[in-house]
Structure formats: C-alpha cells, structure tokens
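Sorry, explain these tokens?

___
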Amino acid sequence: MSKISTISLPHIMGRSPTMLKIIEKISRIAHQDIPVLISGEHGTCKELVAKAIHENSPRQNGPFVSVNLAAIPIELAAAELVGSREKVSVDEPHRHGGKIAEADGGTLFVKEIFRSNSDLSDRLGNLIRDKEMRFNERETVRSDVRIIGATSGNVDKLAGKGQPLSRVIKACDGVHLRIPALRERKEDILPLVQYCMDEAAAKFHMEQKELSSEARDYLLAYAWPGNMRELEHLVTRATILSKGRRIEKRDLLMADIGSCSVKDFFEEKLKRYLEEMMKLESCNLYDTVLSEAERSLIAIVLQRTGGNQLKAAKILGITRNTLRTKIKAYHIHH
C-alpha cells in the first residue's frame, strides 16, 4: 500500500484537484494487471500517463513498447503488431517479430487504438482479452503483455459508431482514464507555466524569469488547443527569446505567432510603435498607421500571388481598379 501512495506523474501533467484524482485512479489500477484505455485531446500527454502506470506496476522491469496506429497504413498495422515472415530459402521461412513479441513481459502502449478496420479490431480485442493475436489463418502469436490503449477521440461517440470499436472498448473492461484538456482546469495553467520557465532557465543556463501581469492574463485567457505540449513549447521559447527577467505578452506572441489573434498581434506592435511616435509633437498617428498597415498588406499579398493583381484583389476583397489605384498611390513595386 505504501508504494501506491507514492505514485507521481511528471509535473507537466499538473497538480490541480482534477489531476490529483487522475493520479489516485492510476494508483489503484497500476498494480492490477488489467488493460487500460486512456483518452484525451492531442497534447494531453497520454503516453506519460501510460508510462506512469507501467512504472508503478509489477511489469516495471519489463519493456515499455509504443506503437502508433495513426502512423501506420491500416493494411500494415497487423504485421507491425504480430510480425511478418519472409522466405530466406524454400525450406526455411524467417519470422520477424512484431511489437507484441518485443513487449513480452512488459507493457504495449497502442496509440490511436481505434484507427482500425473490422479485422484488426477483432484481433486487438483478442489481444487485450486473451493476450494472443492471430498471425494468419493457422498461427497465433501469444505474449505475456499488458495492453494500454489511447485515443484522442471521444470514447462515448466512438463506441456508438460500430461493433468493431465496441469490441475493443469492452475488452478494456471499462477501465477508462480521461485526461482533461488544459482549458478545463485553468488552475493548472500558471503553475505549469512557472514549471516550464524554471526548466528552461535551468536547461539553458539562464536567469530565472517572471511573468508580467499582462502576460499572465493572456495565458489564462488562451484556449490552449494543443494543451500541455503547446504550453511547454510556447513558454520555453518565450523564456529563451525574451529580454531581461520579465516575460511580456509580446514575448509570448513572438514565440508562437499562430497562437494569437490578429487583434492581439496588432495591439502588441502598435504599443511599441506608439511609444516612439508619442515623443513627437505632431505625428498624424491615425493616417500614418492606417496607410502603413494598408501598404504592407497589399505588398505582402501581391508578393504571395506572384504579382497577379486579379488574384490579389480577390484575396483582399477589393476591386482590381481599387487595387491598381492603391499600388500607384503607395508606389508599390511588384
């Protein structure tokens, strides 16, 4: 019992009450040699959960083998699992072991376990339930292996899509761990950000950084579609690229421009521009900003369209005559 109480997950998973319940559930199932199904959006670190189960199980000294069915053509998935056979001579066929044999005595982690057809679902169901999988019509591969499956889909919806998927779900005996998305547990965001900043500072031999209040508000308001992996990537880059000890909102936008809206991007750029322009007594700020933004936008679109004015006008949502007028007025060369 004492071993169960000391189970832990990597800090990148979070320590909110929701995640503590997940850890408690892992503690209960890790020592039971039963199949487990883990679900969660991309970036929720499902493999870290699978490894935590393995490392706190009686199989911890055995191999932990991972296979991603989403990365394998469906017609080759069975061969990846059970292995294949090629003839080195007429009388001596040579058998290549698959992932099942590789994981013997340990854990096989099957990512996107529902990416399968009816035949593969049947085989996976047998593997989960009976620890064996059909090699061909006459042969079966047996292995002392624990199966942990994972999916980025909604298990309830997937179960209702058809009988093959239901067989895999039923074979897991209802042991299902759902890892909540980061937006569902916002209390984890700032501690995770601090953890990632500290890790990056230590790894790259930098001074410790802190967040500005504006950066903190931005991180809390962001939806995090890429979950913990996106947070780790974004904060690490911002820690490296930011100047001084404080990470500003603009550093987060610079680190991952795809994560911010057009409004956020322009606000950050205009704030820095405004600081310089305000030093002038008369800067005609309104006309200057609008004309510069318009000129840059037209020039970029013309460049991307190879100078095709008709195509550029359609992208910009203006007429070709209007575009020509602006090209002439702004002296844009393309």
The CA atoms of residues 63 and 106 lie 5 Å apart. Residues 1-5 have pLDDT under 50 and may be disordered. The two ends are 73 Å apart (CA to CA).
